[in-house]
Amino acid sequence: MFTKTAASLPFVAGHGHSPRPSLGKRIMTMLSLRRSRLDLAHLSDEQLRDIGLTRDDVATEIARPIWDVPANWRR
Question: CB of 31 within 8 A of CB of 67?
Answer without folding.
Answer: no
